[in-house]
Design a protein that fits this description.
Radius of gyration: 20 Å
Largest sheet: 6 strands, mixed
Bound molecules: adenosine-5'-diphosphate, magnesium ion
Oligomer: single chain
Low-confidence stretches: 1-20
Structural class: alpha/beta
Shape: globular
Strand order of the largest sheet: 6-9-10-3-11-12
Helix content: 25-40%
């Protein structure tokens, strides 16, 4: 039996690293011995001041070993500091589209550009440092609250960590934990609610201070009360940064500067909430469907 346990432990360990994000992802690829498809080019460009302009230029993407393209000739430009929402049915390719910006995958055809530079020409570490992702699933590791926040920027000092937690509406609940910032998280430590975990992950991203943000269903799993406080933290994080929000509940993205509707056929509509409702097309249809469900 023993011969089975070790691989299982390794698998568990690997999946933990996988969830750690980018570095974990790379390690995961190395461990399972896949050819790392995503690599730095020789003389890759290191970014300095990132404005956060994002452009998809006739981008197509297909997952390896899959026949169908998820994205076909998609073109889209997002201005620096713009707050856009990406909506559409499940499976339309919203997460996939966003994963092309930090190069979790590379486009099959076309280009993705950040500040006019092809992301494939940018040093990977430099690229990923400038992009913050908040997802539905938050990965916290065993350790203290402070260590978990510091993960966003290993060089951060305590003051910076506390400031980030305050920005993320996390400071007060942290101070109410038995050992404050030194409280242990995990099986033997304090239990946190979904909304509290999400606020820790937002504090991390505040510390990271990226120019581009991706919120992928960040509040989808939360109840209404925690959703509203997490939403507040996300909005404060988004100030002055290019932000793409993917949200299932359309009520959460009503005030986006631009709503982009993605279906399997590509981008079918874009505009403000009121313009799209007036247009009475795909968005209006999605919206009324959700509204009916809630009544
Ligand atoms: P959305 O976020 O809009 O729900 P996704 O980007 O997750 O859509 O998925 C788009 C399509 O790509 C779906 O058909 C999905 O099954 C497929 N897909 C997503 N991730 C992978 C993957 N890692 N490997 C293969 N196919 C995938
Ligand atoms: Mg998705």
């Amino acid at each position: 039996i023993n011969f089975m346990i070790e691989p299982i432990q390794r698998l568990t360990h690997m999946s933990m690293q996988f969830q750690e994000g980018i570095t974990g992802f790379q390690r995961f690829m190395e461990i399972i011995n896949l050819k790392p498809a995503i690599e730095n080019k020789p003389n890759a460009i290191t970014l300095n001041d990132v404005h956060g302009e994002i452009e998809f230029n006739q981008a197509s993407f297909r997952y390896e070993e899959h026949l169908d393209n998820v994205l076909v000739n998609l073109s889209l430009r997002i201005q620096p500091g713009e707050y856009v929402a990406l909506v559409g049915p499940s499976g339309a390719g919203k997460t996939t589209l966003c994963s092309l910006i930090p190069r979790f995958y590379d486009v099959t055809e076309g280009d993705v550009l950040l500040d006019g530079i092809n992301v494939c020409d940018i040093d990977l570490q430099s690229l990923r440092k400038t992009i913050g992702v908040v997802q539905q699933d938050v990965y916290l590791f065993t350790g203290t609250v402070k260590e978990n926040i510091r993960y966003g920027n290993p060089a951060a000092n305590d003051e910076e960590i506390i400031a980030a937690a305050k920005h993320a509406n996390a400071h007060d609940f942290i101070m109410n934990l038995p050992n404050g910032y030194n409280s242990e998280i995990g099986q033997r430590g304090v239990k946190l609610s979904g909304g509290q975990k999400q606020r820790l992950s937002i504090a991390r991203v505040f510390l990271k201070n990226p120019s581009v943000l991706i919120f992928d269903e960040a509040t989808s799993a939360l109840d209404n009360e925690s959703e509203s406080i997490v939403k507040e933290s996300l909005e404060s994080l988004a100030k002055g940064r290019t932000t793409i929000v993917i949200a299932h509940r359309l009520s959460t993205i009503r005030n986006a500067e631009r709503i982009i509707v993605l279906t399997e056929g590509g981008i079918v509509e874009q505009g403000t909430h009121s313009a799209l409702l007036a247009h009475d097309g795909a968005y209006a249809h999605l919206y009324s469907k959700q509204f009916e469900l809630q009544v």
